[in-house]
Amino acid sequence: MAGATPKLIKELREKSGAGMLDCKKALNECNGDIEEAIKYLREAGLSKAAKKSSNVAAEGLVTILVNEDNTKATMTELNSQTDFVAKNEQFVNLTKQITAHAQDNNLDDAEALAASSIEGQDFPTFLNEKIAVIGENLVARKVTNVEGAVVNGYVHLGKVGVILAAKCDEAAKEKTTDLLKKIAMHAASMKPTVISYQDLDADFIESENKAIIADIEKENEELVRLGKPLKNIPQFVSKVQLTDEAVEAAKAEMKEELISQGKPEKIIDNIVAGKINRWIEDNSQLDKTHALLSQTYVMDDSMTVEQAVKAVDASIELVEYVRFELGEGIEKKEEDFAAEVAAQMA
Length: 346
Prior knowledge:
Blueprint: H1 6-16, H2 20-29, H3 34-52, E1 59-66, E2 72-80, H4 83-86, H5 89-104, H6 110-114, E3 117-118, E4 121-122, H7 123-134, E5 139-147, E6 150-156, E7 160-167, H8 173-190, H9 202-226, H10 244-260, H11 265-282, H12 285-290, H13 305-312, E8 317-325, H14 337-345
Antiparallel strand pairs: 1-2, 2-5, 3-4, 6-7, 7-8
Helix pairs in contact: 1-2, 1-3, 2-3, 3-7, 10-11
């Protein structure tokens, strides 16, 4: 059988995705046998992929796939080494393929994905072949599937992805779908870590309580130096800490202060009602940072996310929230470009 011909090279490139010169070499080595050439490229590619596997993959894409009736959403993070590859059409299509595979097979994490089979191959072999073709290390780092009565998501520039699930009355499903998209956009920007302040970890609250107070005390030192009004130093940082006893103690202290200032007794309760709302706000700063429902809604800063949800329909309840941020937690190797060039020229 003849070796590489233009027609065979074209066919092999379409089937393998490998470069023209690699296809030509494979066909010459395999006497023009397409199947043997594919095997040759696969074996050669796997050896190349093994060499690339130690390279840090911190770029890439976050991808979301929502099914037709908005009851299931899948999100993946597929990492590449460079942003250039992340914009490549082959890589983009690969992320879509892997995300659809994860949804079709209910793969809930990276371990389940790695243990799965795709296109008749085990997933690691499949990915190694893509590494050989694309030319960079690739890592399927995160996978999640979220199901619910209503599910929707949002991806910002391929860098940040959010999925939200909610319960609601049947009649409210359509408007809930739209609302979840908007809240997902909010969460992509504002980075909440939980849905409600009630979900915050007790040890985390205690640690942040000390840190926030220390920060404000430090700020007040500078304000004293500048002769500016001081900030209130809170006792607490989350509504979790605001027990009935704590609120009543705060009210009693306010009343005593107003009485000592000579305020008329008949207006004291009204003044305390206003002051206690401000006290609760000052003593729940952590919630606004970390709890989605407590945050000021970016689509309408006159209300919180919780108020925005109730304004759409009282039956809506957020039940699940997942947020991926590309490369989060990956240590990137700092490259000395001049040294790298010098090393290659040596």
